[in-house]
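Provenance and format

Records in this collection were gathered into a single text stream. Each protein contributes a sequence line and a token line. The two records reproduced below are adjacent in the stream.
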Amino acid sequence: MTTKVMTMNEIRRTGIQLLTENLGAVGMIRFLQQSDLGWGDYTKERHQWLGNPSLSEIEADIKAMKRN
């Protein structure tokens, strides 16, 4: 038996291709969503990213995004 040494990118690309061929695009996405456990602690880390904005700050940010 001969095995081809593949990079992690090649393995991922081949896996996605095979999943898409066998499950379709939607099935491939659903499979990846359920099998990707992620990492870190979102609950703790989101406070670092978002802080604790007031409703008026959120409203101002939304209005600024709509203007741009």
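Adjacent record:
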Amino acid sequence: MEAVAETDFDTPRPDPTTLGDLRASGHVERGVRDEIRNNLLTALRAGDDPWAGIVGFDDTVIPQVERALIAGHDVVMLGERGQGKTRLLRTLAGLLDEWTPVIDGSELDEHPYTPILPASIRRAAELGDDLPVSWRHRSERYREKLATPDTSVADLVGDVDPMKVAQGRSLGDPETIAFGLIPRSHRGIIAINELPDLSERIQVAMLNVMEERDIQVRGYSLRLPLDVLVTASANPEDYTNRGRIITPLKDRFGAEVRTHYPLDLDDETDVIEQEADMVASVPSYLVEILARFTRYAREHPSIDQRSGVSARFSIAGAETVAAAALHRSAVAGEQFPVARPIDLQAVIEVLRGKVEFESGEEGRELEILDYLLRKSVADTVRARLGGVDMRPLVTTLESGEQVLTGDRVPAAEVLTALGEADDVTAVIDEIAQRLGATDPAERAGVAELALEGLYLARRIDKDADEYGRTAYLVGQDDEEAV
């Protein structure tokens, strides 16, 4: 496990280094469930948010999780891909005490007051108050395992260590066991992602750990009072229909919590802005378009809704749009890269592989995604620019002018093509004020949005060439519009 940086500490590492010092400090031992319950209740009473970074679950998922933790239950999170299950499980570590004492050198991070391994019990009896104590940060007490079909019992629970047997210990000696990830999570949290991918015999090996809190290896049982909160994530399709989680294991999870995709458009945009690593400025209206695009994809009958449309779909879209803007700034010599609607053209090819289409739609993937993207743009224009009189833009194009844009066309050229007529400038000013566009690159973006809206409303035409350039004009044959 990686070392924890000093800058991650909210409070200094405690001083006691021996069992005697620990007793003298007045330290009181608490189980993992008690820690989580008390720290959660303390945060709720103080009005603090223990779920930083979790968006869209405030009134649905979070209350269920809080009740499960207060009850001390092991939890399985059920939801489609990209719904934030793992992100939510990782926040549980923040509910542990920041520091906890362990027997220095202990294989299972046992509490100095209650050693559980034979070797630790002997050390505690021999050394008494001189038993050495070290401290674990809460980030070191959360462990995660991605379940795969080749995961073994040894990985999760443990197995006999042949090297220890070769040293002369008998095969039935508990000290010959090499512990797996679950026992090593003693006094902490273990999260198993994609639980249904574990083979059934591996799931059977977890039964005693989940209920009796002991482990069984190679035909003999080592009674260990493990103090571990077991959490897991699963796709509900696997969980309920394929029957890949055995019934006794389902029964041992005290709480089953269903997650969901963001219910509101604002939550969808918040997720994109929070999670996307954008290398250029992406205006909020483009983020909204991508959010609407994702939500339409989740509803379209040609897309397999059983596999879901992950939040990573829109996040990758935002990152691609930002990358397109940065690419243009490098090629066209723009000082500040700002994404524009023309950059949305780069999204379709990138995102095609992130969704599963229904059988029979082969060959139509790009057509379907392009339609949904245009529909998202049209909705955003109506929501953001409703009531703006854009007739001066149409009049300018009717006079024979055209506005050329593209992935390599700088913002200055777009604004120059629109001209400096007072009525056109007034329209762009009004739209820019609505959308918070101030510098020329942002103004070019809102101008493109207005032109694209006029095109989708069939008030102007659009002509694209093989070089990625698009001309807005009047007088050509109408292309298909939303």
